[in-house]
Amino acid sequence: MANIKSAKKRVLIAEVRAIRNKAIKSKVKSFVKKVDVAVTAGDKAVAQTILIEAISEISKATSKGIFHKNTAARKMSRLTKAVNEMA
C-alpha cells in the first residue's frame, strides 16, 4: 500500500477509472452483440438502426481513450460490413 498522499489518491483514481472503463466496454460489447443477433436473424432494418447506435458508442469510447482509434475503426468496419452483406 502506498504511503504518500498523492500515491494513495492515484490508487483511488485508478480504481474509479477502471470501473468506468469496464462499464463502457461492456456497453459497447452489448451493442455489438445486438447487431450480431439482428444480422443472424436477418432483420436488416433493425440491424441498421442498432448499427448507428453501436458506432456512436464505439466513437464515444474512443474519444475517452478506452479504445485505440484503429481498434475502433476495425470494430466499426466489421459491423458495417456484416450489415451491408445482408440480403
UniProtKB/TrEMBL annotation:
GO biological process, one term: translation
GO molecular function: small ribosomal subunit rRNA binding; structural constituent of ribosome
Signal peptide: none
Residue ranges of coiled coil: none
Source organism superkingdom: Bacteria
Pfam families: Ribosomal_S20p
CC terms in the record's Gene Ontology section: small ribosomal subunit
UniProt entry keywords in alphabetical sequence: Ribonucleoprotein, Ribosomal protein, RNA-binding, rRNA-binding
RNA-binding keyword on record: yes
PANTHER family, per database record: 30S RIBOSOMAL PROTEIN S20 (PTHR33398), SMALL RIBOSOMAL SUBUNIT PROTEIN BS20C (PTHR33398:SF1)
Stated role: Binds directly to 16S ribosomal RNA.
Family statement drawn from the similarity comment of this UniProt entry: Belongs to the bacterial ribosomal protein bS20 family.
Listed name of the protein: Small ribosomal subunit protein bS20
Species assigned in the record: [Clostridium] fimetarium
Gene: rpsT
